[in-house]
Structure formats: structure tokens, C-alpha cells
Amino acid sequence: MRRRPPSRTGLWSAAALLASLTMVAAGHPAAAHPVRPLAGQTYYVSPAGQDTADGKTTGTPFRHIQKCADVLVPGDTCLILSGTYEETVVPARSGTAALPITYRAAPGADVTVSGASRIGGFEPVTAADVTAIAQADPFAANSQFSDAVAAGHIYSTDVDLGADVSTVQVFTDKTMDIEAQWPYPGLDLLDPALQYAGAGSADATVADADLTRPAGYWDGARALTGYWYISATTTVKSSAVGSVTLDAAPPCVHKVVPAETRYALSGKIGELAHPGEWFYDATAKRLYLYGTDDPDSHVVEAKRRTLGFDLTNTGHTTIDGIGLFATTVKTGPASTGVTLDGIKGRYLSHYTDITRGATDCGSTVTRGVGDTGIILDGTHNSVVNSDLSLSAGNGIALRGQNNTATDNVIHDVDYMGTYAAGIAVQGNSQTVTHNTISRVGRSGINLQWNEVAGLTPGKDVIAYNDISGYARMSLDVAAIYTCCSAWMMGTAIDHNVLHDPAPATTSTTFGISGIYADNGQSDLVIANNVGWGNREGTVMLNGLGTGSHDNGVYNNTGGMTLFYVKEPGQSTGTKIYNNLGTIRGLAGATDGGLVLSDNLDPAVDPLFVDSANHDFRLTAGSPARNQAIALPGINDGSVDPAPSLGAYQYGAPNWTAGARR
After folding, report:
1. Where is average pLDDT lowest: 17-21, 98-102, 141-145?
2. Three-state SS string across 504-566, please?
3. Does residue 52 lie within any of the structural domains?
């Protein structure tokens, strides 16, 4: 926005003020905006308020945040008093670059926007109820469920949670319950008990001696499978003692693999027999809970709203200090200037159907990548200083261009084990810095570069992130994973600390690395990263497919793996300089044109300060000092005449990664 010259009184002209109040996002008529003083109006919201009040004082607050959203104009602020607000807020208009609209928790307030609503009216399930249920499902009699009923642990209530059981989410005292299933997974979503297909499994059939239910018991059940890099869902076509046959073999690999395909079965009331479990009968619209006492003595809730703030048509808006429970925030392709600051989000997104009827590999493995977690689409939007946890999919999805995720703490996300991530980066020109990410189903950061229509593309920056506990539910992955056959325009992945992957599966652990450029990623700069505990090292380059070209891999600590076949031209332009740690797979890579120089011989001890405690700075006597090829902007700062090998320059200020709190 352009200001007119100020008058001698220092105030804008009336025309300039009017212009500032009418520059809003497309789709909201400027004529609807009343003219207010430059300072803007502050409105208040409280659970004790009334939407018929004027909202202008703490004594006359609105009842709903939406009422604020209906009246705010550029420059206005909505201060929200302590409480839980069960609503989806859809702003009536945007702010401007000079006069943003702000939704903020009042000083000292504890504010939660919730996607869940309380349900009650639970009654104990009786033996007579079991008899009635058994008329439709004979296996409900003489089951673990009937035993739990006899023990007085099963309660039920009438409630309409929709026809799609895979989207049902139930909470007791703000903790997510789980759908009744076999095997009972426990209540840690990122550390479930796992069951594996046994000998004789093949194609679409899971054979397992632990499948002791009667023939036909599992017919029509929903099945979750996981193997290698593929998590998928389907239904059971037929079942017998010792086996189940699925409607379709898992996509991508098209087979069930003995001892390596994990699986779980749900959708049968007979499995409702453990603490924290529920079963929903969508036909009868009845919810069953396992409880050690009356559920009505607790706060039992079900998810009702996907979005807490729908900013699809909103720009120049700040949301500050607000909690999210069982809901999330979404911006749209035209959104710009949106800032999410200090968000405390739990249970952002939920689903249990991965495949959704698809049979192709791509749409299965990418379930949740673009539409779960905090979804930032558009341009020049940011999520900062936020604590985000517990999502079937992402913590954050960065779409569009020139968006930012900085100083966030993200954990326990992607519990369905797809290509969703702590932060899923799409589009281009995105910035992801100083985040702490831990306990994720697959990758901490999933980096998928693509162009955005109408915008000039550019590189991503992925730097100073601390990522751990990755690969819990999926393999062939990394803390930072990027794929496939994309020209990354100099995208920088630098100064990240990538450590302690924690695969929960017993499958082969191929591909677990700190940074993994998979299937022909080119024009990356991977520099000054540190990793430990990674099977394939801190960096892995896979040149299959289109080849992996013009990558610069500089000054990393922790070793690497190169995965190339012996084919001329497969890795032309790629340079690997100044690294510390064992480099495997050299033959195919160097045959393909890759150049290595000044990497320390792995037989030589680099003499780190304290490698046992992961302090990989160099001691005074380190042979890595004064040995590196000088790369301006990459390895500056050493006190020696020449730079040091590895991620830490001798004598330079120590850099750190992770959220700055």
C-alpha cells in the first residue's frame, strides 16, 4: 500500500485512510467496511459473553469468536478470554499489509478452539444387549466383548457420528481413545503393538497362527497393512482360522510379505475388550466404550469440526497464542500475510482409511501430505513458535510459495505412517528453520519441490532443524526425505542435526538416513549437517531413475551412502567435498561422473571433542583442521588459514539446531 504525504498534523488524509481500509482480499466487498480510527478497535470474547453485546469491553464481551470475525475490519483486534470455544471461525474479511486483523489470547488467558463436543447419556451394556447384537453379528456372543460386558466394563450411548467410521475420533478426558482392533495396540499412537504376517502369507492373504477367531469372524473387517515404505488400508474378503484374505494386495509391492508385513484388523465389536477402546455402530448410530467406571463421570467427546479457523479466503491476519484441540487451521491459495504464532495444537488431523479405494501406489503413500496438520497455502504466510502434536498426518503442510515454518516443536505425528511428516514441504521457495521434530511415523521433513502456477519458482531453505525419532512406522526414509526426479533449483539443506531414528518394525531397515535424496533428485546443496544413529549415514543419494545430478554435498559429519548403478552420466555434476565419516557405494557413483575430494579417510580418527556424547566439534589436534576446500558461504569461520572438514569450523562460534525457546 502506498501512503500519501502526511499533512502538517502528521495524520493521513481521509482518502488515504479510506484506501487502507478497502484493500482486502478478493471476494470481500470493500464497501462493507466501516471507517475506523487508525489504531483500530479492540473487541473481546468470553464464554460468559453474549453475541448481542457490543464486545468492546471485558464487561460486554461477545460469546463467540465468530462474532468477532463478523465485525473486524483492517487494524482491529479480537482479544479472547480464557475458555473453550467449539466453533469453526470463518473471517468475514481480511486485513491489509499495513493494518492486519488479529485474533489473540488475552494476556494470561488459556484459550482453546475445539473441534470436539461432549457426548453423554452412557448406560451399561447388558447381557440382553449382547443377545440383540448377536442377531446381526453372531460372533459378538462368546467373545472378548461379551466377557467385558459381563465384567461391567462396556457402556453405550446413542449418537450420530456419521456414516464413515474411519473419521470417527473419540476422547476421554482430552486423551484420544482407539477403535477396537486386533491386536490391541496400546494407547501410544507412535509405539503400537505390532503383528506380522506369518509363514505361508502371499499375494493378498495374511497367514498367521495367532489368528484364532472362527472362520468368517473377520469377514468385512478393515485391514491396515504396512511394509517397507507403504502403509495401506483395505477390507477383509474372507477369513478362516489362521488366515485372512484381503480385497486387494497392498499397493506398490502387490503382495503380503511373510515376517515383514505388519497388519491390524478393526471393525468388529467382538474386539472391544481393553481400556481406552471404542466401537461405533454406524447403522444403529450407537457408540460403545470400554470403561472401568461410568463414562459420564468423565469428559467424553467426539470430533465434530475439522477446522478451528478457516482462512481459505483470508489474508493479512494474525492468530496469536491460541490452542487447538481436535481441529486445525487452513489458509487458501490466495492467502497472504497470515501469521500463526504461539499455537498449541493437539490432535490436529485424524483418519484411519489410507487407501480410500485407490489401487495405485502414489495416491496411497501420499495420503495426508497436502491436507492435514496446520495447512499453509498461498504466499508469505508463517507458523512460528508453536507446539504441535498428535496427528494422523502432518504437523504442518507448507503449500504454495514463500511460506515459513520457524521455531516450532512438533512431535507424535504421522501415526498412520504415510508420506505425511512433521513438516510436509510442497510448492517451492519455502523456509523451514529452527524446528524441533521428534517421534514421527515416517520423516521429520518431507520435501517435495514443485512449481506453483503463475509464480516464479525458487529454492527451498531447510536449515537448523533438530530431528529425531523418525521412521517409527515406515522405512526407506530419513529425517529429511526428498523425492523424486525433481530439479531443486539449489535448494539448501544445511546445519541440521539428524539423529536417533526409532523404527518400530522388524522389517529390513534399508534407507534410514539423516537426509535422503531419493530416485534422482538434482541441484541440491547439502552442507554442514550432523547425524548419528543412521544406518545409511547422515546423507544418502539415490541416483536411480533419471539420475542424480549437480548436487553439492559439503562438510557433513556422520558418513553417507551413495546408491548408483555403474552407468555413465548418472551422477554428473555432483560434488562431495570436505565430509567426515565413511562413504559407501563409491563405485557406481564415480563411474557415473560424481567427483569426490578432500573427504577424511574413515580410517583416520577425526578427534572430536566428545563423540560418545555427540559433540562433533574438532579438538586442537584434529587432522580435520586446515584441510578443506574453501567454499565461500559454506565453510567460512575457521581460525585456520584453510577451512576444516566436517560440519563445525575450528574456532568458529558453535551453531545449534532446533527451536529457540
Report:
1. 17-21
2. CCCCCCCCCEEEEECCCCEEEEEECCEEECCCCCCEEEECCCCCCCCCEEECCECCEEEECCC
3. no
